[in-house]
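call fold(seq) -> tokens
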Amino acid sequence: MAIRPMAPCTLVLLTYVKPIEEIDRLRPAHVEWIERAMAEGVMLLAGRRTPPTGGVLLFRGTPDMVEPVAKSDPFVVEGAATMELVSFTTSFAADAMDGLFG
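ret:
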């Protein structure tokens, strides 16, 4: 079965523009930022691209709501990564995700 949340979400695609050593130096602050966004309920998931050329972040809400949060990512603030926002509406989700989009 699948649920039909019909909720606005924004995918943030990070692309590293600095050497991996700089990314690694900023990673602890980036992880703290992710943990805070998840605790606040605005971010649903985060992961590193494979190969490690950037990251993928899933947020609840429209780009207008997400952009200020995404711009506060230490990777972005320090100019180590650029970001692209992809807006979409969740049409279907696995039952296990029920309650995440409301």
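Strands lie at 2-3, 7-16, 43-48, 54-60, 81-90, 93-94.
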